[in-house]
Amino acid sequence: MVRYGELSTKGKNRKDFIKQLGRNVRAVLHQFPTVEVKPQRDRLHVTLNNEDDKQVITALQGVFGIENFYPSIQIDKDMATIKKVVLQMAREQYTSGATFKINTRRQDKNFEYDTNQINNILGDYVLSNVAGISVDVKHPDIAIRVEIRMNGAFISSEIIHGAGGLPVGTGGRATMMLSGGIDSPVATYLAMKRGVKIDMIHFYSPPYTGEQALNKAKQLTSVLAKYSGNIQFIQVPFTEVQETIKEKVPEGYLMTIQRRMMLRIAAQITQDRHCSGVFTGEALGQVASQTLESMLAINDVTTMPVLRPLVSMDKEDIIKISKDIKTFDLSILPFEDCCTIFTPPAPKTRPNLEKSRKFEAYIDVDGLMKRAIDNIKITDIKAGEEFLNQDQDVFAELL
Ligand code: ATP
Ligand code: MG
C-alpha cells in the first residue's frame, strides 16, 4: 500500500500526479509480469501476486512521488479473520519484553466497529494471547497497522520510506549537461526528484577523448534511468569547437569561451526539443570555473533558464548523494572528458564579460554551432543497460 508524497497538497493537479505515478510505477515493475498496479485517490495499491517481494520493494524505493509504503496482507473485512492475522503478526515479531500498539484507520465508515473499538478489540486479543507483551502507544516496538478499506482489510507492521519528491514527468521537460564527473549525475538526480523529465546532453572530443569516456557518460545515464525511466542521450561532437578555440583565443579565456560555446549549443538543442531549461552540475566555489563572475560570463549567451541544483551544496554532501544513488564508483573512473584535456593550466577565475564577448568574436560561432548540432547522435538509454565492459566487477553491483 503506497502513500503519496507531496501529491496530497497539490489540489487540482492531483489527478495528473496520480496518473503519472501509476505509469512510472508500472514502468519500473515491468519485469514482474503478474504484479498489478492500481492508482487510487488516496493510495496506490501494488498487488504482488507471485512476485518476489524484496525485488519489488527495492524497485519501488527508487520511484519519486512515493512518501512511504506498507507491505500489507489483504484479507476479508471480518473481525475474526482480522484478529487471527493481527495475532499472527504480533507473534512473529515478538521478542522478550516487547511492547506493541494497534493503529487503525477506517475508510469504510459502514464497518461494524469504529477505530477505537477496533484498537481495543485487537489490543485486548493480542494482550491475552501473547505472554509477556505489553502496550506502549508512544514508542511501541511493534506497530501493527490496520486499514479498513472498501476493498478489504489491510494489515501491516512495517513502513518503508520512499524516495519522496514528485513523479518524474509532472515537472516538465529539461536538458541536463552531463559530464563524466561526480556532480552532474547528482544534479540530474535532484532535477528528476522535482518531477522533471531529463534529456542528457554530453560533449565529447574524439580523438582526444576515447570511446570509454563516452561510454562512461552513457553508463551513468543508465544508472540514472532507474529513477526516471528511459533517457534520451544526446552526444555532441565538440572537437572542432575546441580546436578552433585553442587556436584563436588567448589562453586565459579558453575555458570561459569553451563553456560559452557548450552552453550556446546546449541551449539551442534544448529549444529545438521544446524543453524549458538547462540543468548543470555547477556548484559555487568548487573549481576555478565555478565563481559568480564566471557564471555571469558564461550565462551571457542565453536567456534559457540555467538551473544549478548543487549551487550552494558542499562537496561532501554531493559525494554522499552520489554514493547513495550509485553513480560515485562510475564517476571516479579515470577516463578524461573533453574539458579536462583542453583546460589551460591557469584559467581565469574572474573572467571579464566584455573580454569574453570580444574573444569569442575571433571564432565563427554560428558555423561551429551548426556543424556540432548537425552531427549530434541520439540514443535511447534504458535502466541497467551496459556500456562499459572493461572491468565488470566494478559495475556488476551498480546495475
Ligand atoms: P562534474 O563533476 O559534473 O564534472 P565539475 O565539478 O567537474 O562537474 P566542471 O568540469 O567545471 O565541474 O563542469 C561544470 C558543469 O559543466 C558540469 O557539472 C556539467 O554540467 C557541465 N559539463 C562539463 N563538461 C561537460 C561535458 N563534457 N558534457 C556536458 N556537460 C559538461
Ligand atoms: Mg567535470
UniProtKB/TrEMBL annotation:
Keywords tagged on the record: ATP-binding, Cytoplasm, Nucleotide-binding, RNA-binding, Thiamine biosynthesis, Transferase, tRNA-binding
**Pathway stated in the Swiss-Prot or TrEMBL entry:** Cofactor biosynthesis; thiamine diphosphate biosynthesis
* Localization: Cytoplasm
Q: Which reaction does it catalyse?
A: [ThiI sulfur-carrier protein]-S-sulfanyl-L-cysteine + a uridine in tRNA + 2 reduced [2Fe-2S]-[ferredoxin] + ATP + H(+) = [ThiI sulfur-carrier protein]-L-cysteine + a 4-thiouridine in tRNA + 2 oxidized [2Fe-2S]-[ferredoxin] + AMP + diphosphate; [ThiS sulfur-carrier protein]-C-terminal Gly-Gly-AMP + S-sulfanyl-L-cysteinyl-[cysteine desulfurase] + AH2 = [ThiS sulfur-carrier protein]-C-terminal-Gly-aminoethanethioate + L-cysteinyl-[cysteine desulfurase] + A + AMP + 2 H(+)
An individual GO BP term: tRNA 4-thiouridine biosynthesis
Q: What is its EC number?
A: 2.8.1.4
- Which terms in the Gene Ontology molecular function aspect does this entry carry? ATP binding; CCA tRNA nucleotidyltransferase activity; tRNA binding; tRNA-uracil-4 sulfurtransferase activity
RNA-binding keyword on record: yes
By its UniProt entry, which NCBIfam families does this protein fall under? tRNA uracil 4-sulfurtransferase ThiI
Question: What role does this protein play?
Answer: Catalyzes the ATP-dependent transfer of a sulfur to tRNA to produce 4-thiouridine in position 8 of tRNAs, which functions as a near-UV photosensor. Also catalyzes the transfer of sulfur to the sulfur carrier protein ThiS, forming ThiS-thiocarboxylate. This is a step in the synthesis of thiazole, in the thiamine biosynthesis pathway. The sulfur is donated as persulfide by IscS.
Record protein name field? Probable tRNA sulfurtransferase
Q: Which gene encodes it?
A: thiI
